Amino acid sequence: MPLRVAIVCRQPLNRAALAALVAEELQADTIDVASSIPELAAQTPDLLLLDLPPSENPKTWIDGAPKARHRVLVVPERDLSLARLAYAAGFNGLLPETSERPLMIAILKLVLAGGEYFPCFEEASAEGAPILFRQLSQRQREVLSHLTQGQTNKEIAKMLGISIATVKLHVQAILSATGARNRTEVVSRLGQSRL
Q1: Which of 23, 79, 130, 138 has its Cα between 20 and 30 A from that of 5?
Q2: Collapsing DSSP states into helix, strand and coil, what is residue 91?
Q3: Which CATH number does the domain 4-117 belong to among 3.40.50.1820, 3.40.50.300, 3.40.50.2300, 3.40.50.720?
Q4: pLDDT in tens, 39-96
């Protein structure tokens, strides 16, 4: 099956390096390069590499990214906040420019195979869970505790004496704080033992 890759990068040297990597290692049939998002607006590639420019608002750049079957955010180095933004926007991976070439290739192949790569998440769950936990309100911590036990919103509402709608608001706040897409990811990232 032909592989179509799109690269959006403002820096010509980085653009050329990414294109060479994709051409040599992924044997892409088509590689479209652009210096801005609007240049690729009409295309839907199999793989999009979006190189985040340092002077742009990351959220605007990430949210404005074109659609693609697989999307990877290229960043200067590992960054948990950028990883959370990219993940929440439906990206499949984070590619730090500081990575060695074999790792970059492995990341791209993993994403093309349907996997995800966010190296910061494991570090955050190992090191940052207590920090994140302190950011939550007391009620959100209580809701999170019940989530780790696998309870439904209805069960949590009954246990805490609050409405289901309020539980949903707390769950949404927890998802937002962790960058998780759903409650299962919250539990897997933080782990019951960390609570």
Answers
A1: 79
A2: coil
A3: 3.40.50.2300
A4: 876 778 999 999 988 777 888 888 888 889 999 999 988 888 888 888 888 899 899 9
Give the contacts of 30 (CB within 8 A, at least 6 positions apart).
Answer: 2, 3, 4, 5, 45
Computed over its alpha carbons, how large is the radius of gyration of the chain?
Answer: 19
Percentages helix, strand, coil for the chain (3-state, rounded to 5) are 55, 15, 30
Pull the structure tokens for residue 23. Answer: 């051409």
Q: For residue 55, what are its two tokens?
A: 């002077």
The owner of tokens 């959220």 is: 59
Tokens of 148: 């780790």
> Quick count: other Cβ atoms within 10 Å of Cβ 23?
13
Question: Which pTM does this prediction carry?
Answer: 0.63
H-only helix segments in 33-163: 58-63, 80-88, 101-112, 119-123, 129-135, 138-148, 153-160
Two tokens, residue 179: 């960058």
Specify the 3-state DSSP secondary structure of 137.
coil
Count of all residues that appear for the chain in the document: 195
The three-class DSSP label of residue 65 is coil
Backbone phi, psi, residue 116, to 5°: -130, 150
User: Both tokens of residue 60?
Assistant: 């605007």
